[in-house]
Each structure stands twice: as structure tokens, then as C-alpha cells.
Amino acid sequence: MTRRVKDFIDISEFTSLDDLIRYLETIRDNLPAEHEAELKIRGDDVFGRRLTITYFRDQTPEEVEVESRYAGGMEDANIEALQRKLDEVPYKLSKSKRG
């Protein structure tokens, strides 16, 4: 089973309304099943605003190959075991020194 990844589509603020509607319809019609798509307005007055569509999709075969190469074949159970060990490591909080 492949992992799902979050993908992004940005639409600049300089888009006509008709183009925006056609673009959104095309995106909607081509989204994968169980996409959980969201539309948000991001940015600010200085750098500009844009519409951002986020959705989930399955990894491509190339992404699976790259991830398996760098993951080193570690199983999820091994990762969870390491997390439990790290949670058990004692540590002492120190007070920050201010001058």
C-alpha cells in the first residue's frame, strides 16, 4: 500500500473570473478519489494573495522508489519502537540565563 501525500495548486490573484471558474472545474474533475480537497486564500498585501488548493493523492511510482531508497527499508514498527525509547529518555529542564 502506498502512502498518500499532500499536494498543492496555487492560483495567482491576477486571474479573470471566467478563467478561475474553468480552472477550478478542471481541477475538481481531475482530483483523485478520496482527495479531501480544501481551498484557502493565502498571502498578504506585501507579497500578494493567492488561492491555494490542497488535496491528498497516492505517491507516484517514482516517489515510492525514492522514498524506499532513503528510508532504508525501515518498518513502521521499528520507527514506533524508537519513538517509545526516546520518550523514555530522562532529561532535565534548565532555566535560561538572562543578562
Short structural summary:
This protein is α+β, with helices and mostly antiparallel strands and 99 residues long.
Describe the protein.
With 99 residues, this protein is of the alpha+beta class. It has 3 helices and 3 strands, in the order βαββαα. It has helices at 17-30, 61-71, 76-87, and strands at 4-12, 38-44, 48-58. Strands 1-3-2 form a 3-stranded antiparallel β-sheet, with no helix packed on it. Strand 2 (38-44) and strand 3 (48-58) form a beta hairpin. The longest helix has 14 residues, at 17-30. The termini are far apart. The mean pLDDT is 81.
Give the helix/strand layout:
Layout (H helix, E strand, L loop, with lengths): L3 E9 L4 H14 L7 E7 L3 E11 L2 H11 L4 H12 L12
Antiparallel strand pairs: 1-3, 2-3
Work out the helicity level: 25-40%
Radius of gyration based on Cα positions: 21 Å
- Strand share of the residues? 25-35%
Please list the strands of the largest sheet in the order they lie side by side.
1-3-2
Total strand segments: 3
Short descriptors:
single chain; 99 residues; three-stranded antiparallel beta sheet
